[in-house]
């Protein structure tokens, strides 16, 4: 039994890529062989699904960090940059309008 659980642990290294159905199949095979009982099988499935979720989130985080790192290195124009420029343009337009309004009052 310990050998079977060890094998499941090795499978866990790339668990994020395995579907839930495949996990259930693997555990069912172990139960059918008598390597583990049904209760242990349920526990193993739950643990593998939790580990799969953790690995998926970890992978997504690492990918996101690498993307952000790459973007910062290539000095690309970001959505944040666009929003800042739009804000500055809005303020400039408001200032221009304010100056025009003052001129109108002054030259009347």
TrEMBL record:
Keywords linked to the UniProt accession: Coiled coil
InterPro entries documented for this protein: PhaF_PhaI
Coiled-coil annotated residue ranges, if any: 42-102
Protein name: Polyhydroxyalkanoate synthesis regulator phasin
Organism: Methanosarcina thermophila (strain ATCC 43570 / DSM 1825 / OCM 12 / VKM B-1830 / TM-1)
């Amino acid at each position: 039994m310990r050998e079977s659980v060890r094998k499941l642990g090795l499978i866990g290294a790339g668990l994020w890529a395995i579907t839930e159905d495949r996990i259930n199949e693997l555990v069912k095979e172990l139960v059918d062989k008598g390597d583990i009982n049904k209760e242990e099988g349920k526990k193993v499935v739950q643990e593998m699904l939790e580990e799969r979720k953790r690995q998926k989130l970890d992978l997504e985080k690492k990918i996101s960090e690498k993307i952000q790192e790459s973007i910062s290195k290539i000095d690309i124009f970001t959505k944040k940059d666009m929003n800042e420029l739009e804000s500055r343009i809005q303020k400039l337009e408001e200032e221009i309008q304010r100056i025009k309004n003052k001129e109108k009052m002054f030259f009347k």
